[in-house]
Amino acid sequence: MVIQQNLNILSNKLNGEFVFDNLHKSIYATDASVYRKIPLAVAFPKNNEDLKRLIQFASENKITLIPRAAGTSLAGQCVGEGIVVDVSKHFTNILSFDEKNKTITVQPGIIRDELNLFLKPYGLFFSPNTSTSNRCMIGGMVGNNSSGTTSIQYGVTRDKIIELKTILSDGSEAIFNEISKDEFNSKKIGNSLESNIYKSLYNELSSEEIQQEIKNQFPKPEIHRRNTGYAIDELIETNVFSNSEDNINLGKLLCGSEGTLAFTTEITLKLDDLPPTESMLVAAHFTSIEESMRAVVVTMQHNLYMCELMDKTILDCTKNNREQLKNRDFVEGDPAAILMLELKANTKNEVEELAQKLIEDLKNNNFGYAFPILKGNEIQKAVNLRKAGLGLLGNIIGDKKAVACIEDTAVEVTDLPNYISEFTEMMKKYGQNAVYYAHAGAGEIHLRPILNLKKNEDVELFRTITTEVAKLVKKYKGSFSGEHGDGIVRAEFIPLMIGEKNYEILKHIKTAFDPNNIFNQGKIVDAFPMDKSLRYKVDRIEPEIETIQDFSESEGILRVAEKCNGSGDCRKPVSAGGTMCPSYRATKDEKDTTRARANALREFLTNSDKINKFDYEELKDVFDLCLSCKACASECPSNVDIAALKAEFLHQYYKTNKPTLRTKLFADNVKYNKLGSIVPFITNIALNNVITKKVLGIATQRSIPKLYKTTLKKWYKSNVNQLHSKEFKNGEVYLFCDEFTNYYDVTIGIDAIELLTKLGYKVIIVNHEESGRSAISKGFLDKAKAVIDKNIEIFKNLISEEKPLIGIEPSAILGFRDEYIRLADDKNSAKNISKNTFTFEEFIKAEFENGKINTSDFTNNSKEIKIHVHCHQKSLSTTEATFSMLNIPTNYKPTILNTGCCGMAGSFGYEKEHYNVSMQVGEDTLFPKIRNLGEEIEISAAGTSCRHQIKDGTKKQSKHPITLLREALK
User: Does 392 have pLDDT greater than 80?
Assistant: First the structure.
């Protein structure tokens, strides 16, 4: 038994981080599979010496090392009870690049899409393309022999392996690359572990009888997605074991070995030329899965670059995802299935001709009812929709989920219709409406039964269905694992799939490489049971957890956390675009991902024996760097809203742990601003004093926003008679006077009132409460609820389609669509108000489109404007509204900057312990783009926090879109 003292000694020897606290162990206990194993510790090695020390420690203490990159494995490859070795933080470099020979050498932690960004200027790319390509890493792709949408043209990862540098289980280094038969025989000489590996392989595979058994039992060689067990069927086709002219490369054996044979530190890959530039995608619609499968055989007679399937279940999930809803414009009617068929050529005429021939062929065979052709950005939107498939399945409400167990089967394309037909009949026998999606053109459909793995009867069905499908795949001589690997879920079935004799060879190979079994135990050989160590305890009594927010749409807060299936979209880098997850982008620490927060909350709420199940410092730690940007509410395919979970956690946590003075001040800032606004000049001097900042725990580098000389409500009261002294052609609107505009950004509020008034609207401000945003962000939900209930009572008989509510500060007004509905007592009224509540930008855009506002009202002068959009607008509203509003003046040229979160996030960026992370978030995308703008360019930012962050980070001034449009009035 490894004791704490040994772990402490090891920690002191490593250059990288080494942790074994409960928080890290809980968030590394799962990947994207259904399994959960609490590791002994988590290591973040910095170099090869760290890896060698870990290997030595594992050998001496008889424990296992579980290699991990992005942790998106679907079969449980990344979970285990030993030490998880995370290479995603430090092993992330490109080591060398040979443009002439089209090769590149990388460390295992480099992200696939970031590698291709580096290669693009050279006209090259690494072609295997998984749905997780914007965060998955080359090490994981090698471990799983990944393929993805491009395999029908370019092959799989194994085809791209030139060389692997590894550390063997005795700590020695070995390089595996292409060698001749003579070189192979030379390597057999000696007593080193490497020599023993070569000798063992030769002894195991030399017999013609054994080779014939491999050919008889392994999947058909025509199936290029073959990933069951170790690739000994590839080895016997080399000149060491046959009359072939092909040299042997043991790197191809390690590819797909799931880290069970050696620890790979460097990977040299063969690259491909970028595909033709002109593309079209035919989205063929079908009335049944069976029809789409028969159509695949026809479509694959064309030179396709992609042939991907989405079924009705996946398509229906996209309807409930804000981010993906805008990507499904091409869907016509209610198809049972869509095949995404991409064609490429060097000219538009050529690709159009290819698309028409494909459609004509489908029609002649009576396949499909609609064939929209997508071009340009439409293709990427459709691809994003398909890539979101895995995560979208987490949107299924309740405990029944689309389970990964039979999702990786591959058969020959000509066998696909019959295979799917038999599969469907089998599913009917078990009362299943399975999910069908993914790589139809490669003969691989990701099939998923819908099961509740919290219940014993469904766990039994989990095994039964997996076993039955394994037998069906064997009948067609297919591969039970096409690209996702064996892991835990399929390793048990390898003897069935390749025969017992061949399985014994795999065990001997494992022993040759890893005699002490330290590398990723329980995967491929001597497998863990596929129906044990599940994420949920079977037949458990479901924890009852009371919350102040209403999470009933997801059946409670625990199931909100459980919606996270581990797909890891929250790990996408800045280069992938979007906003999620700003804290992870700043720290590159798994602890700071959306996934980690959801997993930690699930873990502690499920297993807590405390009266207050939220009373854990570990939860406080994991939520600490969450900026409550709400990007996860829209960009996470499963819509896991961590901002809502953080607010609830803090509310519950404070029941047994007192909040700090600073937290109270920020949460109740309206009360203190009201006092400070009596003498704003003195208040501003006092708050911007260094001593005050230090006492309150505010970063001294920050400039504190200054209270204005009056409040917006006072200004409105003084000017209302004059404002209302004329006729208003466009009717009445209610303006929400949020607390930020009322005390700080009064001039913006005045601009809003004057702009609306001059455009023919009667602006009414009633005596309402603050928005509650500060209280929500700090977890003071009792206070927020009281404010919300009062506002609902005030507005419920005032707001209508004819008299909408308009807001200036995005985070304040958009609460009506979000937290108000979860916290209000009068939910019906809250929902009704939300339907007629708009950001200022949304309102102006709609009124312009309805003809109530005209370009003639505004200047003809030219102005270039760059727009940074507030995170809550991206998540709960739209970026297009701001663009459209600032595009009304004829010669204004607005552009939306592709920026993520600004990093300020209300009070977050002012808190001294968060200052560095806040500024790093700003540096990720926003600050560099702002600094590069010329002085003549106007910067637009709707959020008060965003404007202050831009000022602190770049020394540049930005304006609210309202001010820019007000200035444009004639």
Answer: no
